[in-house]
Amino acid sequence: MCKKIVIAIDGPAASGKSSVAKNLAEKLGFTYVDTGAMYRAITYLAIRKNIVDDVDAVIDLVKNIKIELKFENGLTRVFINGEEVTEHIRTPEVNAKVSEVSRIPEVRQELVKIQRKMGENGNLVAEGRDTTTVVFPNADLKIYLTADLDERATRRHLEYQEKGNNVSFDEVKENLKKRDTIDSQRKVSPLSKAEDAYELDTTDLTIEQEIENIIKKVEEIKAKKEMQN
Predict the structure, then answer these.
(1) pLDDT, tens digit, for every residue of 123-172?
(2) Neighbours of 31 (CB within 10 A)
(3) Fewest 10 Å CB contacts: which of 7, 51, 80, 179?
(4) In the 8-state DSSP scheme, what is residue 132?
């Protein structure tokens, strides 16, 4: 019997991490963990409580809440203390603040503990901005997704339009530029490509082509594990 596999997917905002991870998990029958949704949930709750700019208050918040993720029918449902917040965590307001919240060291430390706990059972696809370098540095397969800024802004702008959020393309692009800077320059767990990660530029690829590329890598890993048994 093949040993269990952990797949970690990293990359900047709107590079396609969530779409790829969800589809990959479904095709492989693996558990899907959206680490970014956890930071978004903290950010949403901090905004709601009007403490998002109070670092100490945000740290107290994350130490005293329970976060649950449930992946059902292709959708990650997010719960905080039993309350579902799925529909509230992907708004422009949350997007504008999530990088600031996620760079707080104590926030990252608390959430990484939870994420690693989720990975103990293996057969997992996890995605986020430090998944390959910090959360699962020993993952069996590390993927670093990239795409050029204009393409990422186009994708994110379309998401907003589909949800009825009236945000301009230029505003979305500027927000992504800001998030890239914050994520790559933060002192704790900055966004970076792991040395042994497989880099995949998704700018001109369909989701089907992306999944096909990654599944080939997964099959290679499975074959190696079978030989080791």
Answers:
(1) 899 998 889 998 999 999 999 999 999 999 999 999 999 988 889 999 99
(2) 17
(3) 51
(4) I
Please compute the mean of the pLDDT values over residues 78-85 and round it to a whole number.
95
Beta-carbon contacts of 187 under 8 Å, excluding residues fewer than 6 positions away, are: 103, 105
Please give the angle made by the CA atoms of 80, 32 and 225, to the nearest 5 degrees: 145
Domains of the chain, first to last:
6-210 (3.40.50.300)
- Give the separation between CA 11 and CA 169, rounded to whole angstroms: 21
Residue with tokens 């997964």: 218
Is residue 17 exposed (0-12), middle (13-18) or buried (19+ Cβ within 10 Å)? Answer: buried
| Cβ contact 25:32 at 8 Å | yes
Give the Cα separation of 135 and 151 in Å (integer).
Answer: 27
